């Protein structure tokens, strides 16, 4: 790590590297709001379409914990699964027996057409405990006030999207809410030409006949995105998914992207090299540069390096 940053600094100070050259999203510079979303759509849409077998955690490697075991992340439960603990059809009636391939944006919302690229898009396909997946069904992700079911991690009940048994809400654990928000931002961008209101409760989250998040869902998911920043888990997953299907989730790479499209900066022109989210830096330091290195975005300012969230790494 020290050697990597030493090389980076030598290149920077010798004038060989420029933030605009190293930033993956410099083609968005000067664009605002939906212009950014449309430009991202053009880049994201032509990804490799995987087979359904390729999206098992045992095949994709996208959800490996990276701790020297075969264990995987499950964002619906506290179960500990090996990536080989897959559920066959009709298996598992209790907690933590085996895991499913879960469409975090339910396939019924686009009409359950398995020929659509969303069906095997790894960015929103995650391994989940079968029982928790069954409870989630195709209910929208939101916040629950009146809990009808919980496994100690996720909840199902009455909340954001309704107060009766026909309008339930599924709430993930706080530590994953930002992950799901950024997944939905990706889906609303990569598939902005689709409709996510063709079935199930998609109309609770998206505007009719579109992939545009409605105001209720958008406000909530922006809140989740801000409160639960990008984690190393998400960065690692983004890198692995890119290797499999050839595109990235830009909202993991640059969390401010969501603000420029839907949030506080939607009337501000995007600048890939902009200084964002960095606090308590002495004003005499040079202007910040954004540097893309080994699949991670860093802020370089003078002799200091920060993560995109403003955490010092040197």
> Average pLDDT, to the nearest integer?
87
Number of helices: 10
Distance between the termini: 10 Å
Shape: globular
- Poorly predicted runs: 11-21, 275-285
Structure description:
The protein is α+β, with helices and mostly antiparallel strands. It folds into 2 domains: 1-23 and 276-314, no CATH class; 34-272, no CATH class. It is 29% helix and 14% strand. A 3-stranded antiparallel β-sheet has the order 5-6-7, with no helix packed on it.
What's the structural blueprint in terms of helices and strands?
Layout (H helix, E strand, L loop, with lengths): L1 H12 L5 H4 L10 H12 L12 H4 L10 E2 L8 E2 L16 E5 L21 E5 H7 L7 E7 L4 E5 L9 E3 L2 H17 L24 H13 L4 H14 L4 H4 L3 H5 L27 E5 L2 E6 L2 E4 L7
Antiparallel strand pairs: 1-2, 3-4, 5-6, 6-7, 8-9, 9-10
Helix pairs in contact: 6-7
In brief, what are we looking at here?
The protein has 314 residues and is α+β, with helices and mostly antiparallel strands.
Essential attributes:
three-stranded antiparallel β-sheet; globular; 10 helices; 314 residues; alpha+beta
């Amino acid at each position: 790590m020290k050697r990597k940053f030493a090389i980076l600094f030598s290149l920077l100070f010798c004038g060989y590297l420029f933030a605009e050259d190293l930033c993956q999203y410099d083609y968005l510079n000067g664009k605002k709001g939906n212009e950014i979303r449309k430009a991202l759509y053009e880049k994201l849409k032509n990804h490799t379409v995987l087979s359904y077998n390729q999206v098992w955690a045992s095949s994709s490697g996208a959800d490996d914990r990276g701790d020297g075991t075969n264990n995987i992340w499950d964002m619906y439960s506290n179960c500990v699964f090996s990536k080989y603990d897959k559920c066959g059809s009709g298996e598992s009636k209790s907690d933590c027996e085996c895991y499913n391939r879960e469409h975090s944006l339910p396939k019924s919302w686009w009409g359950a057409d398995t020929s659509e690229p969303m069906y095997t898009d790894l960015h929103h396909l995650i391994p989940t405990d079968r029982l928790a997946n069954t409870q989630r069904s195709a209910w929208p992700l939101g916040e629950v006030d009146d809990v009808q079911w919980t496994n100690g991690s996720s909840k199902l009940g009455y909340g954001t999207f309704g107060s009766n048994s026909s309008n339930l809400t599924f709430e993930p654990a706080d530590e994953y809410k930002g992950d799901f928000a950024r997944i939905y931002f990706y889906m609303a961008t990569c598939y902005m030409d689709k409709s996510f209101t063709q079935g199930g409760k998609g109309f609770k989250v998206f505007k009719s006949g579109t992939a545009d998040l409605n105001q209720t869902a958008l406000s909530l998911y922006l809140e989740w995105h801000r409160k639960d920043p990008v984690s190393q888990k998400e960065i690692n997953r983004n890198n692995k998914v890119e290797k499999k299907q050839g595109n990235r989730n830009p909202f993991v790479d640059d969390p401010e992207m969501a603000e420029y499209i839907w949030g506080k900066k939607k009337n501000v022109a995007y600048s890939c090299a902009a200084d964002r989210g960095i606090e308590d830096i002495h004003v005499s330091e040079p202007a910040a540069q954004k540097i893309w290195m080994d699949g991670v975005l860093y802020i370089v300012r003078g002799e200091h390096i920060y993560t995109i969230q403003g955490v010092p790494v040197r």
